[in-house]
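USER:
Working in pairs, take the chain set out below, taking as long as you need, and write a paragraph about the fold.
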Amino acid sequence: LRTLGLTSLRRGEAPPRAARLVSALGRSLRSGQLPPGTRLPAASALATMLRIEGAVVRSAYRTLAEEGLLT
């Protein structure tokens, strides 16, 4: 997760955490750092790893799917 820039998703920092998560994961997907077909952790598992709410991860995953980066 550190290599994806996901080490700091503290509450209250700008931009919102979901946007920062979308940015980090989107950048990694677009650059090939996360190759096509890579399975991302379940939203609840990633939320636990990052110590954030599951709703934040679900929102980020939904945005990435809408952008065509996740299926």
About this structure: Residues 19 and 40 are 17 Å apart (CA to CA). Helices lie at 17-31, 43-50, 54-66. The chain has a mean pLDDT of 86.
